[in-house]
Structure prediction request, 55 residues.
Amino acid sequence: MQMLYYVLYTFLLRQFLIDATRSRDHPRRRTVVDAVYVVGSVVVYGLLLLRHRGA
Prediction:
């Protein structure tokens, strides 16, 4: 169930970032926002995984 919440919240966060940076109608800016979002998500997920394994 927690994984479902993670997926839903990350989807909503991505949509928020696209709207907050006004990149919805700017393909180049949207590409940058998407790349930053993916890298950030992987870092956060990796940190959570390391924290979980350490406990």
Remarks:
- The chain is about 85% helix and 0% strand.
- The radius of gyration is 13 Å.
- The mean pLDDT is 89.
- The CA atoms of residues 39 and 45 lie 10 Å apart.
